[in-house]
Amino acid sequence: MRPNGTPGKAMKNQKKAFLRDIIFLGVVALITAILLMMHPEKRAPVFSASENFLVEMLLIMPAVMILMGLFSVFVPDELIVKYLGRSSGFKGMLLAILIGAFPTGPLYVAFPIAASLLKKGARVASVVAFLSAWACIKIPQELVELQFLGAKFMLARLSLTVVFVMVMGLIIEQILGRRSGK
Amino acid sequence: MNTTTLFINALAVICLILGLRKDREKTKHALKIAVMSFIKILPTMLAIILIIGLMSGFVPPKTISKIVGQEAGFKGILIVGALGAVLHIPSLIAFPLAASLLEKGASVTSVAVFITTLTMIGFVTLPLEIRILGKKFAVLRNVLSFIMALIIGILVGVIL
User: Fold this and answer.
1) B-chain residues within 8 Å CB-CB of A176?
2) Which of A61, A62, A73 sits opposite B33 (nearest CB)?
3) Is B98:B51 a contact under the CB 8 Å cutoff?
4) Residues B49 and B79 in one domain
5) Theoretical Cys-Cys bridge with A105: which of A61, A109, A164, B51, CB 3.0 to 4.6 Å?
6) pTM score of the predicted model
7) B66 in the same domain as B42
8) What is the pLDDT of residues B124-141, one digit of tens each?
9) What's the CA gap between A5 and A16, in Å, rounded?
10) Do A69 and B34 touch (CB under 8 A)?
11) Whether B75 and B10 share a structural domain
12) What is the SS3 assignment for B98-113?
């Protein structure tokens, strides 16, 4: 998902993962076919449920992907490190969550960023908040959650997550010590 | 199309236009990334959609509510949380799955826990996290994330 990721090994892993996904799809398709052959009366409900979700996904996915692609190209890692390295305190944590919520690629991309933040002396609490927000609060992702689970569910989960991500950051900071250095 | 769909598509179009005006090459690159990500996610997406279909057709709501519903209690929530932590499905696809589970009688709490552990805890990426950020940091973050996810889920269940 990253434009400037490491080629070679990462590429190979991605290919492997893709192959695994296709095999998974094949197995599921096969099971579906067998089950539907044995129970023809279930065909209508199974297909109609699948179709509903397929349509909903196809209406939303391309837009989500475009947003993610744009963010990952226009928001470089250096920018993130620059902004997060500077700020601290409560505001720093909020900023960390906000920046983490930019859709810029999978979680493993964030590990090196987090490591360099720690090296630069950023607060552990901020780094934890950043990582966790990166993992579970993404703007397009929240929109998909809104679409499928409704505004109440999305808002409740989102606001609680923001609070608890900060609490978690503070707890880990207490345990590890204020700075990343031992 | 409902409002959310309209909104997210409009947002994508606006961002795309802004991107094109700012930097054509970068935007092209972004679109390439978008297409690649879509292709990458497609097989899993189709598989989950089939699973949702099968679930609607074959698994009676009673069974689902017994496993992940009110009846399942705290043990059910723990199981769902662990499942979310270990499974490696893209979170985007988890939402429709969660929605169909809810529809079929799963409890709000277990669905919220599932989504939260699924996104916040990377069982698959844990070795990488340990290597880059250190064992103590990575393990602490993941273990605490699990506990937090349980609390978040339970609170969401209480609120809704």
Assistant:
1) 136-137, 140
2) A73
3) no
4) no
5) A109
6) 0.85
7) no
8) 889 999 999 999 999 999
9) 17
10) yes
11) no
12) HHHHHHCCCCHHHHHH
Cβ of B102 within 8 Å of Cβ of A149? The answer is: yes
Range of the domain at B41: 1-58
User: Is the confidence at residue A33, as pLDDT, over 90?
Assistant: yes
Closest CA to A81 of A96, A93, A67: A96
Domain count, chain B: 2
Statement: residue A5 has pLDDT above 50: no
Q: Are residues B131 and B112 in the same domain?
A: yes
Min Cα separation B131/chain A (Å): 9
Q: Which of A60-64, B23-27, B55-59 has the highest mean pLDDT?
A: B23-27
- B129 token code pair: 């996290």
Predicted local confidence at residue A8, as pLDDT: 62
* B13 and B78, same domain (yes or no): no
Judge if B52 and B108 occupy the same domain: no
Judged by a CB distance cut-off of 8 A, whether residue B110 touches chain A is no
Does A109 score more than 90 pLDDT? no
Count of CB atoms situated within 10 Å of the CB of B12: 22
Contact B148 A165 (CB under 8 A): yes
Does A23 score more than 50 pLDDT? yes
Q: Is B33 on the interface with A (CB under 8 A)?
A: yes
| Every domain of chain A and the residues it spans | 7-59, 71-180
